Amino acid sequence: MNKQDLIDFEKEVADHWEDGNLPYLIHLSGGNEDFLIDLFKEVQDGDWVFSTHRNHHHALLSGVSRNELLAKILDGNSMFVFDRDRHFFTSSILSGTCAIATGVAYALKEEGSSNRVWCFLGDGAEEQGHFYEAVMMVQGHDLPCTFIIEDNNRSVDSTLEERLPYQFRFRLPGCVIRNNYDPTYPHAGNGTKKHIVFKDVK
Amino acid sequence: MSYKDELTKANTKLAQNPQVRFIGYGLKKGRALGTLKEVADSQIIEMPVAENLMMGFAIGLSLKGYLPVVFIERMDFLMNAMDAMVNHLDKIAKISHGEFHPKVIIRCIVGNTKKPLYTGATHTQDLTEGIRQMVSFPVWKMKDEGDIEVFYDLASKTFDSVMLVEYKDLA
User: Fold this and answer.
1) pTM of the model
2) Are A103 and B50 in contact (CB < 8 Å)?
3) How is residue A169 annotated by DSSP?
4) Strand partners of residue B69
5) What is the CATH number of the domain that holds B70?
6) Cα angle at A153 between A144 and A18, to 5 degrees?
7) Strand order in the sheet with B162-167
8) Which of A187, A183, A194, A192 is nearest to A27 (CA)?
């Protein structure tokens, strides 16, 4: 799965949205392909990936097939992509996966496994207290878990400066990495506002 | 046998399953009001005072095949864990279409109103009926010592998560 494959997949989903085939909420990925492709080179078989409402790129790079993922999306499960065999888990509740990730990481460590956990969140979820509890647990037990903040400077539609005028951020420890990127698509939908599903709503 | 002795017996029996892990704070010293006094240290995971972390952590352990037992020493404090419990523990099987089915046993204590003293409005709430409205898994009140063995056995065998409501006034 290369960069163009990822971009093309999301374009296809966007087209379905625009054609009115997707009467469901979607969050499209885009703009972070290079970073993710490099990161997923580190993800080993047996590792766990915890993703978010914006999970299409993560799922494809975790090995979920294009057709399988598209079928899930067309069936209304864009925000609920799970794959037990690939240890791929999502939550669309901001920062909801962080604590769960710590439990899996603790178990991996107790088992003496060489596998680890990769837990994605956005810069909006970074503002949730639950994230910091999980970071504390990972650092406090030296758990094999990395949190990846995909920072597109957007929480729904608000920039960091709009949310926090002094743009405060905690200094985060080694279990957290941040990728700043410019998103291709808006928070939800594909930005065209051509979605027609609601036209018949009375 | 007293209410507390029945709880101790039930938890000791639960711990015979090597996959059981008791999760909470103050457990290694306080032993969950003494009810874990027969449980090995290796089955107790001492946690920071962060109930949502405890509940989410338990979900993660369950995904890896453990049977976590989360100890919430006051039902009032469970309110801090509502996201992990209501939005995740209770919904994961549904939203994942059965790909994942975590099971967690939650021991939740209703604080003492009498014995040995009244602990105040934020430490004595029995919110059982409200919680039953929020989750689909069973929430069982153990109203006397006769309920304990029955409900603990059911909790250990059922496929789903369970909340066991215990009363400090009875212990």
Assistant:
1) 0.95
2) no
3) -
4) B22, B105
5) 3.40.50.970
6) 100
7) B44-46, B20-24, B67-72, B105-110, B162-167, B139-141
8) A187
Band of the pLDDT at A186, cuts 50, 70, 90? confident
For B72, the domain range is 3-170
Other C-beta atoms lying within 10 Å of the C-beta of residue A94 = 20
Number of domains in chain B: 1
pLDDT 10s digits, B153-168: 999 999 999 999 999 9
Instruction: Give contacts of B81 with chain A, Cβ < 8 Å.
Output: none
Q: Work out the minimum CA distance from A13 to partner chain B, whole angstroms.
A: 21
Under a CB-based contact definition with an 8 Å cutoff, are residues B145 and B86 in contact? no
Res. B142: pLDDT tops 80: yes
> Strands, DSSP E only, in chain A?
48-51, 88-90, 117-122, 145-151, 176-180
* DSSP structure class, residue B39: S
The CA dihedral of B69, B102, A178, A114, to the nearest 10 degrees, is 80
Nearest-angstrom CA–CA distance, B162 and B154: 9
Amino acid at A104: V
DSSP state at residue A27: B
Which neighbouring-strand residues pair with A196? Answer: none
Q: Give me the mean pLDDT over the B81-99 stretch.
A: 97
- Comparing alpha-carbon positions, the chain B residue that sits nearest to A76 is B95
- Tell me which chain B residues have a C-beta less than 8 angstroms from the C-beta of A91: 87-88
Nearest CA in chain B to A134: B53
Question: Is there a cis peptide before residue A23, judged by omega within 30 degrees of 0?
Answer: no
Whether the predicted interface score ipTM is above 0.85: yes
- The pLDDT of residue A165 is above 50: yes
CB atoms within 10 A of CB A53: 20
Return the sign of the alpha-carbon dihedral for residues B110, B113, B119, B121: positive
Contact A89, A80 (CB under 8 A): no
On chain A, the residues whose CB falls within 8 A of the CB of B55 are 99
- What pLDDT, on a 0 to 100 scale, did the predictor assign at position A187? 82
Chain B residues with CB inside 8 Å of A83's CB?
99
Total CB pairs under 8 A between chain A and B: 94
